Amino acid sequence: MRSNNTYEIEKHYLGQPFFKTSLSVQLINNINNHMDDLLKNNKQVSVVDTLSGKITKEWDSIWFANIDEKKEILNRFQYCIKNLDKDDNFHEWNYTLDSAWINDQQQHEYQGVHQHAGKSMLGLSSIIYLKVPDLGPEYTETSSPHNGRTTLIGNTGGIFTFSQYLITPVVGDMYIFNYDMKHCVYPFIGNGIRRSMSINVDIWPKKLD
User: Fold this and answer.
1) Does residue 135 sit in helix, strand or coil?
2) Interatomic CA distance for residues 29 and 69, integer angstroms
3) Beta bridge partner(s), residue 111
4) C-alpha atoms less than 13 angstroms from C-alpha of 82 in its C-beta half-sphere
5) CA 21 vs CA 45, 77, 96, 171: distances in Å
6) CA–CA separation, 129 vs 103, rounded Å?
7) Under a CB-based contact definition with an 8 Å cutoff, are residues 88 and 131 in contact?
8) Within 10 A of 23 (CB to CB), how many other CB atoms are there?
9) Is 155 left (phi over 0), alpha (psi -120 to 50) or beta?
10) Are 184 and 105 in contact, with CB atoms under 8 Å apart?
């Protein structure tokens, strides 16, 4: 765990590392207000046809590149890049923002197992939880709720290993993970909106002299 007096970043493992941090209430409110203003004024841009989710309301959020809080979020990516398990002292690891979008998931919608990609073969993606409704009653196994949860699937396997991590969405929580870490989102029951934001950051290794 790392702290710089303003936020903490936890490092976890599913054969490969992923990270968890939290964003301030003000930052979450600013992102939500920006998206809500676009919807109110009918200026949203749908990206449903370019994404894999079975979700009917997915919005382009490249406007994220211009908001004041962008630096606070990208600083967290920068920290994660520096703390990846790279057995490599011959490259400098630069990064660029590739894409960002918002999912306004409604009841019965879901995302199958998928992974992210950018312009580079290397990169980090993220999930930021912006709005979380009552996810509704579980059909069975109420002691292990899955409604509206996200499962991260690491590139590992075999007996006595952990290959999956179930995330319960909490407003403000942010997860950062490698492009090739597969994940899925389960449906929920209810009338609310489960809003999350994804950001892809490309990593560009530059060979040192």
Assistant:
1) coil
2) 11
3) 185
4) 8
5) 28, 11, 20, 11
6) 10
7) no
8) 22
9) beta
10) no
pLDDT tens per residue, range 40-83: 999 999 999 988 889 999 999 878 877 777 888 999 999 999 89
The sign of the torsion formed by the CA atoms of 33, 35, 39, 42 equals: positive
Q: 87: number of CA atoms within 13 Å, CB side?
A: 0
CA pair distance 190, 136, nearest whole angstrom = 6
Nearest one of 208, 3, 200, 203 to 99, comparing CA atoms: 200
| Under 8 Å between Cβ of 97 and 158 | no
pLDDT tens digit sequence for 103-162: 999 999 999 999 999 999 999 999 999 999 999 999 887 788 999 999 999 988 778 888
Strands in 173-178's sheet, in edge-to-edge order, are 2-3, 8-13, 17-22, 173-178, 122-131, 194-207, 91-105, 58-60
Euclidean distance between CA atoms 188 and 137, whole angstroms: 8
